[in-house]
Write a structure and sequence with these properties.
By secondary structure, this protein is of the alpha+beta class. The protein is built from five helices and 13 strands. The longest helix has 35 residues.
Length: 287
């Protein structure tokens, strides 16, 4: 097994503001309704930008959302176009049409679940997302599976990840001198016929109030291919270490830039700003 580790420093996110913003977003969507041609309309009458109901009932299990490009001179509604596209591709009543999102559960006080199927460049990718405690998020779970039709087992992979937000807040609330959390609040696994990998993120507070996040990647070959995998990893160690470091630093820089531009509004001002961002993302100011 090969193990790679890198630590980055990021600006801290205020938990109270994060949970207030999440609650405001969920409440706005929960109060929305279906408008003309499948548009999703907020309580104030404005349509959510780029979001259309393609099939089913709004905020009910099985509702399908997405964008349907309008063909020149076409007059079909988004729902008709989506159904036509599904029939043409042979998808019929499958879980999702390409580049669409299916809502599996909408229970704002408990959980929200959705599933997406994307077909691009011959690769079929299925992504599942589950959010526990949407108004005050407790955990985020992600599942992923992909394959290339007709490509055999070498073109199949899967993965799962979970972010335990309660454990994350507990980890960053420790004293800077305290040891890091024993269990990583964020962990993910990916599996392929040739190898499997595990990625973890473990935060701890720094003296200046920022967060220090340890990123650890473990990779190992599977079954009889372990000796082959060991040889491959011997030559790939350098590029893998460099790739992990660059990816972690890039993600940290993007996070720090986003938080530096953040104006922590509260109450009705925060709710109004989120509504503006949903309906007019190009014109809305940064939260």
């Amino acid at each position: 097994m090969a193990r790679f580790a890198h630590t980055v420093t990021v600006a801290a996110l205020d938990r109270g503001w994060f949970e207030e913003a999440a609650g405001a977003l969920v409440d706005l969507l929960d109060a929305s309704r279906e408008g003309p041609d499948g548009a999703v309309v907020l309580a104030d009458g404005r349509a959510v930008d780029g979001l259309r109901l393609l099939k089913g009932r709004h905020l009910r299990p099985g509702a399908r959302y997405g964008e349907v490009p309008a063909a020149p001179g076409a007059t079909a509604t988004p729902t008709e176009a989506a159904d036509s596209s599904a029939r043409a591709s042979g998808a019929g009543d499958s879980a999702a049409a390409p580049s669409s999102v299916v809502l599996r559960a909408w229970r704002p006080s408990h959980s929200v679940e959705m599933e997406s199927l994307v077909v691009e460049d011959g690769l079929s990718l299925k992504v599942g997302l589950r959010l526990s405690g949407p108004r005050r998020p407790r955990a985020v779970e992600l599942s992923l599976s992909g394959h290339q039709p007709g490509g055999g087992s070498l073109y199949r992979f899967s993965g799962r990840a979970k972010a335990d937000l309660a454990a994350w807040w507990a980890a960053v609330d420790r004293l800077p001198s305290a040891p890091p959390a024993a269990r990583a609040p964020v962990a993910g696994r990916a599996v392929h016929r040739l190898a499997k990998a595990r990625l973890t993120l473990t935060p701890r507070p720094a003296e200046d109030g920022s967060w220090r996040i340890a990123v650890v990647l473990s990779v190992r070959g599977r079954w009889l291919l372990r000796p082959v995998g060991a040889v491959v990893l011997l030559f790939a160690r350098g590029p893998l270490e460099r790739g992990l470091r660059e990816a972690a630093e890039s993600a940290a820089a993007a996070w720090n830039t986003a938080l530096a531009e953040l104006t922590p509004l509260h109450g009705e001002a925060l709710r109004a700003e989120i509504a503006d961002a949903l309906t007019d993302p190009d014109g809305a100011a940064t939260l």
